[in-house]
Amino acid sequence: MEDHEDPLVKALPPATDYLSYLTILEYQLTPARLPTLHRLLQDETLTTNIGWDLVQLLLPLLPASEECLQDVSRLGNPREVILRVSDALMTLHPSDDEGISDHEEQGVPQDSPATSLHAAEKRIPLHILQFNSLVSMLATLHSRIKTKYPSRFIATSLHAALEAYTEYPTVETTAAILEFLRDISGNKRPALPPRNAGEQVVPRVTSGSAPDPEAEPQSDNALSQERILTQRLVQFGLIEVLKAYLLSCTDEQPPGMQWALRVQERLDPGAVTPGLSLIEHFNQAEYAKERDSTMGKIIALSRDFGLDRKTLLQVVLNPVEDHDAPLDFEAMPKSPEDIPLERHGCLILLSARCATAALFGSTEPKIDIPMYPDISIIFANFLGNNEKAAAEEQIAIPGPGPLLDSLLALALTSSHCGPDSAPQAESDFSQLILAMVACVRAPPMRPISRIEKIPSEIFRANSNAQSRYNLILQIFHDEGLKYAKESALNWLKQELLDPPAGPDASSPFTDVESFATLFKSLYSPPPDDFSNLRSSSTQAILIEWIKFTSQEATFYILALNFYYFLCRSEALREKLQLQTLVPVFTENFLLPVKKFAQSIRDDAGVSETVERELDESIRLMGKSAADVVLHVIGEIEKVGWKD
């Protein structure tokens, strides 16, 4: 079609007014006519008058309409367009057809500039392309607006961008919003070239922009204050992006960054099981390398934005009740001190910086966070008191995997790389270890067996044997600490296998009376109704069956194996005078557990109830667990007691 016949050209103002021209565009604009519109939008007057209304018209036509959208951001009225772009972000959602971008289907000529975008774009959902284009427009618009209070515009844009990003945190949107934050921060460091597919589809404006038609005079003093306020806003935004990004890293296993296990591998190679190195995995798997690359960019930006370790540490050391309410974008503070940095995000960023220093030998200063009191306070602030919940057989962990991973990684780096420190009070030690055990026993961490070595390492690092003894006794004695009994039993075994050396060395663990106290607490009598399954109600049978299968059987096996270990060690039997404790073990523990396990395995009525009310697989799991318990009891009975 000749230019003079094209309705977009024929109707150009002054042939029609601007409102009428927008109506014509609404009905006549097609993908094939986008190059024509792009050429027409180079007229600054036209774009200033219609640009803000073109945003919603052009978004469905992405990626072919990218150049036109950038024209709008470069040449349209920035104060009008920025409001329309922010509104589009706040209402962003997948379209019904969610057409995968395909130039041929849209009728765009193959030699169109839009086809120069990376081929991966063809597989990216439309709403993701729209997000990337919109935040790119925001960056351009902010560079144009000259006002006394630029932070007010930035706050509006940041709110919209974060709202949309938290809904759709993908590789592509993460790359785009990080670039947006870098741009609005005023940081002079040039953008790095794209390092992955996600970064290759981030639109970048290369043409010049028109000045702000409503520019306001700016004083140096006001600008200085505004820069500080803007810096705080981008700090806030970066932390929010970090949280949302890590929560989204679940599409491929293992989830998240696995900081704690990777740091453990680096600092304690003996903890690594052959063939299961996460360090190697993150060096080889493309999606894992992409996560490391993104985290590296976030950490670098945090330094550029002035988020130093002292600031992050100050936030995470504050008790939760001392933190300000979340930022209200509808009532923006005028002082940067009144913009709170979200504490969970600060913890994750602090841990990431410490972990990368340990993993990659970065230029980050030496880890200067002591175990006591800092790490102890941080665990208390983020996990709180778990004893009540543990008594109800639930671990109260107020956060997902990334938070727990960050806590453990921070403790591990402090243990290996931080300054030497000792607990000022025994309660500091016990509370930290119990919080760490609750952390590794939480559902996101429980399947990873070697993660339990982290609290064990911190436990053994306390040189005060009496404090270690008191904690184990507390765990054995307190029903509210059931979740920690398996860990405590492992610590006790290690204490017996590795006693203090030297002729004058002593330990409460090898003292006859002290050990007897531990032993009796460990093998305390069960409740009176422990083994009366047949006479229990259906609901009680189901509860006890599931509890035995999922929780108690593991502890029984561990406790029985510990006793078997003691029986097989002539030196320990003699040193600890175990013969005097045999009746306690037999009457209080072995016989009741044996009777209960036999009822699980052999009572047909109980089994039928479980299968009828639940499932055959659950019945079989219970019987299998009971078989293992009874097998260990059989081995103990074979050994008997031999003088």
UniProtKB/TrEMBL annotation:
GO terms for biological process: cellular response to oxidative stress. GO terms for cellular component: cytoplasm. Residues 94-114, 188-223 are annotated as: Disordered. InterPro entries: YAP-bd/ALF4/Glomulin (IPR013877), YBP1/2 (IPR040347). It comes from the Eukaryota. Pfam families: Kinetochor_Ybp2. Residues 94-106 have a biased composition (Basic and acidic residues). This is DUF1760-domain-containing protein. It comes from Coccidioides posadasii RMSCC 3488.
